[in-house]
Amino acid sequence: MPTIERIDPQKIPSRPLNSGYRMPAIGLGTFGSDHVSNETVAEAVKSAIDIGYRHIDCASVYGNEAEIGAALRDVMDSGKVDRKELWITSKLWNDKHAEEDVVASCKQTLADLQLDYLDLYLVHWPFPNFHAKGCDVSSRSPDARPYIHENFMRTWRQMEKLVELGLARSIGTSNMTQAKLELVVRDAAIKPAVNEMELHPHFQQPELFDYVVSQGIQPVGFCPIGSPARPERDKTSEDTVDTEDPVLCEIAEKHGIHPATLCVKWAEQRGQIPIPFSTNPRNMRANLESLTTPKLSDSEMEALSKIDKNCRLIKGQVFLWRDGQTWEDLWDLDGKIAQ
Question: Are residues 202 and 308 in contact, defined by beta-carbon separation less than 8 angstroms?
Answer without folding.
Answer: yes
